[in-house]
């Protein structure tokens, strides 16, 4: 299988932490897409990596983190999301966190 594989997971993790991608808007978009791909492909195995971005200085990265955690469909994403929500200063990020929590609650009922 090509995707998801250990190799693709390492690549996506590399995109998240690539210092060159922190310098421009295109890099921001790539990092957000890498988060979404990790969440969709690796589900609960990606929660720890993704949750590490909840306190990132860029609110757009934090928003991407919240969306990606919701995409995991993993109950393991709920505790970090619930702990993060009351401390998030940006409204649009809080809304993304709330949507992720709602999505995970709906996935649980299925």
Number of strands: 0
Helix content: 55-70%
Helix segment tally: 6
Mean pLDDT: 93
What does this structure look like?
- By secondary structure, this protein is mostly helical.
- The chain is 67% helix and 0% strand.
- It has six helices and no strands.
- Helix 1 packs antiparallel against helix 2.
- The model has no long low-confidence stretch (mean pLDDT 93).
What features would you highlight for this structure?
mainly alpha
Topology:
Elements: H1 6-17, H2 25-42, H3 47-51, H4 59-71, H5 78-84, H6 91-109
Helix pairs in contact: 1-2, 2-4, 4-6, 5-6
Task: Give a brief outline of the structure.
67% of the residues lie in helices and 0% in strands. With 110 residues, it is mainly α.
